[in-house]
Amino acid sequence: MTTYKLTPYNGNPILHVRNIYDWKGHRGIELSLTHENITVFAHSFQLALKDLEEWYLLHRSEESYMQFKSKTKEYMIEPAMTWREKKRIDDSLVDWISTL
User: What b/e string do you get for 54-86 counting C-beta neighbours within 10 Å, with b at 16 or more?
Assistant: First the structure.
């Protein structure tokens, strides 16, 4: 998958949304904030957005958090993770663990 580095459009944050598998094989939502280089995972969109807002509150100033929370957000929907992609990631993790 090609990843494009985007800057905020008209000052609005761009959030990448992707349906992926967790390490147990359950589906969830990956939410990435491009201009902050942060990604969160949760089992629903609402939880992922809440986790992202909590991260923003903890790692940025209160003023930045309030601006982020109040601004219109642009969403970029990414293709869902395939089983082949999940297997490739799982296999690479097994290989990496074996080197420890």
Answer: ebbeeeeeeeebeebeeeeeeeeeeeebeeeee
